[in-house]
UniProtKB/TrEMBL annotation:
This is ATP-dependent dethiobiotin synthetase BioD. It catalyses: (7R,8S)-7,8-diammoniononanoate + CO2 + ATP = (4R,5S)-dethiobiotin + ADP + phosphate + 3 H(+). Catalyzes a mechanistically unusual reaction, the ATP-dependent insertion of CO2 between the N7 and N8 nitrogen atoms of 7,8-diaminopelargonic acid (DAPA, also called 7,8-diammoniononanoate) to form a ureido ring. Gene3D superfamilies: P-loop containing nucleotide triphosphate hydrolases. The active site is at residue 40. It is found in: Cytoplasm. Its main location: cytoplasm.
Length: 227
């Protein structure tokens, strides 16, 4: 499968390693000579200093990294926007900005908020719906946790994408431990056996690496990333 222009990075849950996976994908694509933009439709948690775009920029240095809207509270976008008194941009506005970025970049990586069906606007639009807006230029990378319960969460996410006829670039296990347990090794083997492409594992300690080391190792973590 050839990589699409737009790769939407979604998770099976929050805290599964989407941001670090986005950074690793950026670094791996840079190593191939690709120009990469990173776009986060809704960034929440600004009051705590959270900025996924800043973290990706620190680790992987994309050509462009920006958020569609920045919200203060570390919550899902709709309730966070309500507390901030902010009107969220509609999905069409995000899709338009992503199309604009795709003109000047080989790839645009779009990091979602939490899981696939978290609402990103006031009309119930989700990352899955954003993928539908973008059409055949877009595909999904699904990031899963390696621990107990991940097989069900991953299967549900893949089923939701399949039901909507949205293409999947592949699976990534984020937050992979330095010393995996029997459960984690079993989950890895099972996910590798599924028909969806398995792209690799990103270490749990990757965020603590020096950026140069992070960029050098990203291709090894995502060794199955297609051309």
């Amino acid at each position: 499968m050839k990589l699409p222009t737009v790769i939407l990075v979604t998770g099976t849950d929050t805290g599964v390693g989407k941001t670090i996976t986005t950074a690793a994908l950026t670094a791996a694509l840079h190593a191939r000579g690709r120009k990469v933009a990173v776009y986060k439709p809704c960034q929440s948690g600004n009051v705590l200093g959270d900025s996924d775009c800043a973290e990706v920029a620190r680790l992987a240095d994309p050509l462009t990294a920006e958020a569609g809207v920045v919200l203060e509270e570390p919550m899902a976008p709709v309730p966070a926007a309500a507390l901030d008194g902010v009107t969220l941009p509609p999905l069409a506005a995000h899709a338009q900005r992503i199309r604009e970025l795709s003109v000047r970049h080989d790839h645009v990586l779009v990091e979602g908020a939490g899981g696939l069906l978290v609402e990103l606007d006031h009309d119930g639009g989700t990352l899955a719906d954003l993928g539908a807006h973008l059409g055949d230029k877009a595909g999904f990378a699904v990031v899963a946790r390696p621990a107990l319960g991940t097989l069900n969460h991953t299967a549900l996410t893949l089923e939701a994408l399949d039901t909507r006829a949205l293409p999947v670039v592949g699976l990534v296990l984020g937050s992979w431990p330095a010393t995996p347990s029997a459960v984690e090794l079993s989950n890895l083997a099972t996910l590798r056996s599924w028909p969806v492409p398995f792209l690799g594992t990103v270490p749990a300690d990757a965020t603590g690496l020096d950026p140069a080391a992070f960029r050098a190792r990203a291709c090894d973590w995502l060794e199955e990333l297609p051309a």
